[in-house]
Design a protein that fits this description.
By secondary structure, this protein is an all-alpha fold. It contains 8 helices and no strands.
Amino acid sequence: MNKPFLIAAVVGLIAMLISTFVSAPLNGIDFHCQPGFSKPILALEFAGSVQTFQAVFGADDLEKKRTAVLVSLERDFVFILAYVAFLAAFAYALLKGRGKWLFLLPVLLAVGIGIADLLENDALRNLTLHLESGYGASDTVIARRLYFATWTKWLGFAVYFSVLLPCLFRDGRTGRVLGIATGMVCFMAVMALLRISWIEPYVLSIFILFPLSVGYCFLKIRSR
């Protein structure tokens, strides 16, 4: 039994279960997403300015929306810990036999992604709390920090998986299948940088690649 892949599979499964609770508070609430977005949390993350951020909330049911976003952000903290742990465990399981310290780069990338996510959530929380009191110059800085942290996080996923690509393509048919999926996600990351209409599809592709990676870990448990 391959214990590193077993650990990665279990941690990944836990992270997937946690993810279902993160966005639950936002279900059924009508936000005013900007063109190119249908998911409210992504619309807020990529708002880019306090004006767009405020427009996503709109003027109706403001307190209900604020509460939903804040609860979702609180839950997201646990999810961040879980997915960073999975990314680190997955990298170790995949690369531990390829080189003594080769797995350290993706592990550090995973930690960096988690830190960017925490900074993003802090900015989201501050802007959400300041909705009713009005935005000032400091909030404009927070909005810029949010935009930077958001891009750092999501592009970080593409960089992380691109580091694993060579190893995946050398790991048999199953590895090549996951490698092809990973390559497509990396391509979508480049397109997301070029066109706003690609941002949400790219983010959703990450959420598809995540369970595929967990499934790959389960398939590798019996390998040596």
